[in-house]
Write a structure and sequence with these properties.
alpha/beta; 12 helices; 21% strand; 7-stranded antiparallel sheet; 8-stranded parallel barrel
């Protein structure tokens, strides 16, 4: 997940303010949730004595290992799979995090045991995703040889997943050096995948490769550089695994808003991943890897207003406060403004900007303040609706492609209106259509984010994978259980409604769906993942 030492840039007022587009392998610490969990709806999946005793220690397998010379030119021929060979299944998965991405191993998290794979299969999941920090287990340049003992442990994981009938996704995780200096570390990424590819070329198709978890850091401002590096890494994999399914994702912690900058190589065996923890002021409250630690006490119902994930709050000289009815804008002076900026590029051309507010006030609409090509247009006469709310509408058809929109106070009298909706639409008055809302409900934000992602995937003829989503549960200040259940269900339903595969974050730890201390699933999480 988003467990890293980097600070996250602010993205939206509510959704991504804690440190950017929040996202991978969240630091699941050693603590376990409180023991007062409700009884599960179905019998708890408690490991049998036989399964517990069967947790074997990893032993060397017949996988091919590489010496330094072998890494220079890999010629290992991949096995040709028969039509009856098992194929990858990635519909409903779960992350086994907090072990192989930890450096040093055991510093935090939960060691993966053999019965975890049985738990996943019995719980209804068809695959597991294994975050792996390969970069912490390589030798020096130029070969960057992966430690054989570490490789043997990963062999064991793949064996256990295959035994349990699960597809396995293995990634490169927490490669922070690559995020900080992409050009200086791309050779190591290629060497890692050369070795992984050669070692696992004869593994079944149910082993899936994910090139790099949540590229961020320097990549955020240079998405084209990530496109170049991922193409190199993919070419390396294809030397030994020409047909294996490979997962790639966009920059900024794999956040969907950056999908439009992802350039797909010409390859029929790709899947694209996204990670979502929006809004992070709810999903990451109390998370200790942030500095300062985010405050706790947030709730999530699905009905509260929120900025759409594609927009961020850039208001000036005003205090913006979330209320159940909308965003209250306390203007501090004349010419202060409520302002929203589209996160990636322009959003297109529209006819009207409609604001639904609890009171009329003197204002103008400003277009494209974010790109310093400002167009100012007047609002028409306000219209009071039957429900008492007031609609203010401005003609923005002369603004061209929009990057930002602002509502600027022009009166000397300072007011504090509450904005329930802010929409860009085609048409005017009661004939508006094809609206692009800037303020939506929490559930709508999930739905729209997944819908836009699916539309991008369809246009690019590629399947989509929600590789991480979850809610951090602070052990000292537990998250509100109904809020957690509602958020997880909303995210999962939004993905499934748009044909998107998913993997919940995670089995164990503070995000975990399973309570190891009491040997049972968290009933609310399992319900949210499998029940409507």
């Amino acid at each position: 997940m988003f467990r890293t030492t980097h600070q996250y840039p602010k993205i939206t007022l509510v959704a991504l303010i804690l440190a950017g587009l929040f996202l991978s392998a969240c630091q699941a610490s050693e603590t376990t949730p409180a023991n007062n969990e409700p009884e599960p709806a179905a019998p708890a999946l408690i490991p049998t004595q036989e399964a517990t005793e069967a947790d074997p220690q990893p032993t060397p397998t017949a996988e091919a290992s590489l010496d330094e010379e072998a890494t220079e030119s890999i010629t290992l021929a991949p096995i040709v799979m028969s039509p009856e060979a098992p194929q990858p299944s990635l519909a409903k998965g779960i992350n086994l995090a907090g072990d192989f991405e930890v450096d040093p191993r055991g510093d935090w998290g939960t060691k993966i045991e053999a019965h975890f794979f049985d738990l996943a299969a019995e719980g209804g999941f068809d695959h597991v995703r294994i975050p792996i920090r390969w970069s912490a287990h390589t030798g020096p340049a130029p070969s960057f040889l992966i430690d054989e003992a570490f490789f043997v442990e990963v062999d064991w994981v793949l064996d256990q997943a295959e035994r349990a009938g699960l597809t396995t996704v293995i990634d490169t995780h927490h490669f922070e050096e690559l995020d900080a200096d992409p050009q200086g570390n791309r050779a190591q990424l290629n060497a890692i995948w050369a070795q992984i590819g050669a070692r696992y070329a004869n593994r079944p198709a149910t082993v899936v490769f994910e090139l790099n978890n949540e590229p961020t850091g320097a990549f955020n401002a240079q998405p084209e550089l990530w496109n170049d590096i991922l193409a190199d890494a993919l070419a390396t994999v294809r030397q030994t695994n020409p047909d294996r399914l490979v997962i790639i994702g966009p920059v900024q912690f794999n956040h969907p808003v950056r999908l439009t900058e992802l350039r797909l190589p010409d390859d029929p065996n790709l899947m694209v991943t996204v990670h979502v923890y929006d809004p992070t002021d709810f999903t990451a409250q109390g998370a200790p890897w942030f500095d300062p630690i985010p405050p706790t006490g947030y709730f999530w119902s699905g009905d509260w207003p929120i900025f759409d994930s594609a927009w961020q709050n850039d208001s000036w000289d005003s205090t913006v406060t979330l209320t159940f009815d909308g965003y209250n804008i306390a203007f501090d002076r004349q010419f202060a403004a409520f302002s929203a900026t589209h996160l990636v590029g322009t959003v297109g051309q529209f006819d009207s900007l409609t604001v639904v507010t609890d009171q009329a006030f003197e204002a103008v609409a400003l277009c494209n303040v974010a790109v310093e090509d400002v167009v100012a247009v007047d609002f028409g006469a306000p219209v009071t609706r039957d429900d008492g709310w007031v609609e203010m509408q401005a003609d923005v058809s002369s603004c061209g492609d929009l990057r930002s929109v602002s509502v600027q106070l022009i009166s000397e009298a300072l007011v504090s209106p509450t904005l329930a909706r802010v929409d860009l639409c085609m048409g005017f008055g009661s004939d508006v259509n094809n609206c692009y809302p800037i303020i939506v409900t929490e559930a709508e934000a999930h739905q729209r984010l997944m819908q836009r992602s699916a539309e991008w995937a369809a246009a690019n003829n590629v399947d989509l994978y929600l590789g991480e989503f979850g809610v951090y549960d602070d052990p000292t200040t537990p998250v509100d259980r109904p809020s957690r259940e509602a958020w997880i269900r909303s995210m999962r339903q939004s993905a499934e409604a748009n044909g998107i595969n998913w993997a919940f974050f995670e089995l164990s730890g503070e995000f975990g769906a399973y309570d190891h201390a009491n040997g049972r699933w968290h009933a609310d999480i399992l319900s949210a993942l499998f029940e409507d």
